[in-house]
Write a structure and sequence with these properties.
By secondary structure, this protein is mainly alpha-helical. 94% of the residues lie in helices and 0% in strands.
C-alpha cells in the first residue's frame, strides 16, 4: 500500500521545481526556436509567392510584347508586300506602255514599208506582165 507521509510533499515540491527549471531551460527556448522557425518559413513562403507572381508577370509581359511584335511584324510584312505589288504594277504598266509604243512605231513603219512595196509592185506590175506575156508567147508584145 501507498502511505502518505512527508516524502510525498517533498516529491511534489521537487516535481514543481523541476517543471519550473525545465520550463525555463528547455521548453521556452524550444518553443521560441519553433516559433522563430515558423516565422521564417512564413516569410520564405511569402517571398516565394511574391517571386512566383513576379515571374508570372514577367512571362505575361514577355508574351504580350511577343504578340505585339508578331502583329507589328505581320503589318510590316504586309506593308512591304503592298509596296512590292505597287512597284510591280508600276513596272508592268511602264513595260506595257513601252511595248505598246514600240508596237505602234513598228506598225506605222511597217505600214509605210508595205505601202511603198505596193506602189513599187504596182509600178513594176505592167512591166512584169509584159515580160511574162512575151516569155509565154515567145514573141514581143
Amino acid at each position: 500500500m501507498i502511505s502518505i507521509d512527508f516524502s510525498i510533499i517533498v516529491e511534489i515540491v521537487m516535481m514543481l521545481i523541476l517543471m519550473v527549471v525545465l520550463n525555463g531551460l528547455l521548453y521556452k527556448p524550444i518553443r521560441r526556436i519553433l516559433e522563430e522557425r515558423e516565422a521564417r518559413m512564413s516569410d520564405i513562403r511569402e517571398q516565394i509567392e511574391s517571386y512566383e507572381k513576379n515571374a508570372q508577370q514577367l512571362v505575361d509581359n514577355f508574351n504580350k510584347r511577343l504578340a505585339e511584335a508578331r502583329v507589328a511584324g505581320q503589318k510590316e510584312r504586309e506593308k512591304y508586300k503592298d509596296e512590292a505589288r505597287a512597284e510591280e504594277k508600276r513596272l508592268m504598266d511602264e513595260s506595257m506602255a513601252e511595248a505598246q509604243a514600240r508596237k505602234e512605231e513598228l506598225m506605222s513603219g511597217l505600214g509605210a514599208e508595205i505601202e511603198a512595196a505596193r506602189k513599187e509592185l504596182k509600178d513594176k506590175a505592167e512591166a512584169f506582165a509584159a515580160e511574162i506575156a512575151q516569155k509565154l508567147l515567145g514573141r514581143a508584145v
